[in-house]
Every structure is written in C-alpha cells, then in structure tokens.
Amino acid sequence: AETYVYNCKVQVYEWLKQEGIKFFPVVHWVERGLFNPGNSYPRFHIVWGTGFELSNVLVKNLTSHPKASTNLQLYFRHKVEKIIAGDGIIRGIAGINEENGTPFEVEAKSTMIATGGIGGNLELVRKHWYKPWGDPPEVILNGAHKYGLGDLHFEVQNHNGNITHLDKVWPYAAGVHHPKPTKELHGLSLIPPKSALWLDYKGKRFGPMPLMTAYDTRYLVEQVCKQEKKYSWQVLNLKIAYKEFAISGSESNKEIKEKKLFGFLKTILFGGKELVNEMIDTCEDFVVANTVEELVDKMNALTGTNDVSLENIKSAITNYDDNIDRGPKFHNDEQLRRIAHARQYRGDKVRTSKFQKIVDSKAMPLIAIREYILSRKTLGGIQTNLNSEVLDKEGNPIAGLYSIGEAAGFGGGGMHGQGSLEGTFLGGCVLTGRMAAYSIAGEKLIVL
C-alpha cells in the first residue's frame, strides 16, 4: 500500500499518459469518509473511453512493438487448469483448448497469474463471506467477470503459494438484476442517486445515519447486511432519476466509452433520460407509481410479501420533504447536509439535485428501486512481494511464479486492507504488472 501511494502518480498515471491514455478532466470524488477519514481530495480518475479504450490502446502498443512478431504469441480460448513445476521451480502451465477440447501445455521461465478475483464465483464468495457481516445475503448478484472464479488461486495454493484475506471483499450495496443477463444472477452496480431515500426491506429509512453514496461504500454494505432480509430500497422521483441516476461500467456509459463529448455534455445538462427510461422498462427491480400508496402496493407485489409498510414510507418521505420545505437555514437532516457538501464540488454539483423533495407534483412519478448486495472486487488474493513474485507459506518467493492485479489482491495479497478508496483498483493492476515485467527482465521498477 505504501509503495502504491508513493509511486502511483509517476509509475501509473504518468506512464499511462505516455502510452496514449487520456483522462476525463473532472476527477470524481468518492469515498470521502464517514466515521473514518476518506479521500481528502477527488482522486478517482476516469479514462476517456473507459477501460475499453485503455485496453485497446495498450493492446495496440503491445502488438505493434518491434519485437512482437518474434516474441509475442496470443492464445485465445485456452483455459489454464494446472501449473507445471519441476526441480523446485515453476516451469509453465497446462489446460484445455476450448475450441476443440484438446489439452495443451506451455513451458516458460516465468509464469504470471492475472486471472482476477473470486467475485464471479458466488459459491466461493459465500464460503469466504466476511464474518462480522453475519450470514451471506439470501440473494447476491454477480457483478464480477464471469471468469473471476478463483480456480487458479487454489492451484497456486497446491504449489505452496500463500492465499490470504479472501474474506476481504468489496461488494456494492446497490445491485439490480441485469435486464439482459449473460450469466446466472447477473447484476448491475448502480451509482445511487444522492437525493434518493435509502430504505430497508420494510420501507424504513436507514438511520440514525442515513445511507448515501460517495462517502463510505463499506458502511452501506454493512448496514444492509445487519437487516433480517439483506436487501434494500431507494425511493425517488423521475426528476431526481434523470439528473442523478447512473450505472457503473462502460456498458452503461456509452458517451464516455465512445468518446462522444457533446453527447456526454447533453447528458450532464439535460439528464440521463434514455438510461433511466430503459431501466424502468426492462429491469425487474424498478417500480413506478403516481402516489405513495400505489408505490407501496407495487413494492410489495414485486417481493410477494407485505413487508413494506405504508406508514414507514410515508414517515420517511414526510420527514425528509418537511425538512426541505423549511429552507437551507433550518435543514436538520444528515443527508441534506451531505448533499450541500457534495454540491460544493463542481464535479458533483452538476449531478446532484439542489434539495429536491420526493413528493413533488412537478417531479413525478415516484420510483422505487429494489437493490441487492452485488459481488464485485476481491481485496485479498495471492500473496506477493514488491516484485510481484508469489510467496510461499513461509514468506519466500516461488521461483518462476508471479501474480498481478486482482488475483494478487491488487498487490501483495491485499493492498487495500479492509476497504478501498476507489480509483485504486485499476492502478494496482497497472503497478503490479509493471513491477512483474521489470523483475522478469532482471530490473527494478521501484528502488526502495
């Protein structure tokens, strides 16, 4: 973690810019901190073109390298199942060619594990669920890569590699079912509107500290997991949704992914109407109504229960809206205070409503979104040193074996500890990859 802090600017940010990567000019400010300090400044840099662009640029640079024709071979749809060892060192890998089902082996002086975390394997997520959060939720949505299965973690373990902190995960509290799933329990991670009311499964507002995005993601997950039924609701209206609603990932941010500046500015100025309308029409977790009574009926119909109490919903909305009616001088609600704080920064002001009531005839209809815990990043993983060499259970490097990125807990087997500050996941992948490459070449990227 200390190595990352002192080297990320030069060895990650500046190196990526040299490689041709451009960043969106307004830096995001997330994980500001709640009960513990967070990001004192905005630090979440967004690649202009998203991770899709970053991958394309770096792959192009790799394949156009002067030595690529002789030194680079790419094998797609080759599933690695085994690590080959001999004479005390790692000598390569073996697996199956999925196109024709034939086995293959590759011998190498250096083998690098870069297969992601365990978030795509919900069985493993449940097995290693963080104990202080209680039992795993009945429903966990899958927001990780479908190949993030953790299978090679345990193959590394078979060769005495040390696997650590798999219970340290970074899930999100605002997951919804993907309208076009490509895997079981496929989920999307919402960026929850700051002006929405976050309610438990009974429709009661979380408190006394209300839940709100951008301050402490871990706290959101923790509070939802304290409930008897570990899912939640957000209640808002169409006006709030158009201005604030977003979904994480390149798939749902086409203007940024396709580098359409005017389209992006249009979304900022006039709202993400297309995305909101699409989710209302296609996502099973959205309900829309013209009255609070109708909304509660639809929420209960969606879950097949009578869990949501009309009294709870009315109380939450009335107390919040009455606070807004009193005017900013008399606001006495922690969510409104944090909205005011968020709007002080230009990057949040344009995407955060100015004290918008929930029940407002000019902002209707009402919307309720059912939200599940969504599996995403694995903070633990294969333990490594600062050369990205895999360590055995005695803390010694395993000759010929490296691990980088999420497979290595973004560095060292758990660079983030229990929680991330966001904006540091991809950076950890870049830094550990570069450290491994330098080490394999017999050099040092970072001299301590």
In short:
The chain is an alpha+beta fold and 448 residues long.
Oligomeric nature of the chains: single chain
The main sheet comes to: 8 strands, mixed
Number of helical segments? 15
The CATH topology of the largest domain is given as: FAD/NAD(P)-binding domain
CATH class of the largest domain: Alpha Beta
Mean pLDDT score = 97
Q: What structural class should be given to the helix and strand makeup?
A: alpha+beta
Count every beta strand, where a strand is a DSSP E run of 2 or more residues. Answer: 16
Low-confidence stretches: none
Features:
Flavocytochrome C3, Chain A, domain 1, alpha+beta, 8-stranded mixed sheet, 15 helices, FAD/NAD(P)-binding domain, 2 domains, 16 strands, 448 residues
Description:
This protein has 15 helices and 16 strands. With 448 residues, it is of the alpha+beta class. It folds into two domains: 2-74 and 110-168 and 379-440, 3-Layer(bba) Sandwich (FAD/NAD(P)-binding domain); 186-249 and 271-373, Flavocytochrome C3, Chain A, domain 1 (Alpha-Beta Complex). The strands form four sheets. Strands 5, 7, 8, 9, 10, 11, 12 and 13 form an eight-stranded mixed sheet that branches. β2 and β3 (102-107) form a beta hairpin. The radius of gyration is 23 Å and the shape is globular. The two termini are 14 Å apart. The model has no long low-confidence stretch (mean pLDDT 97).
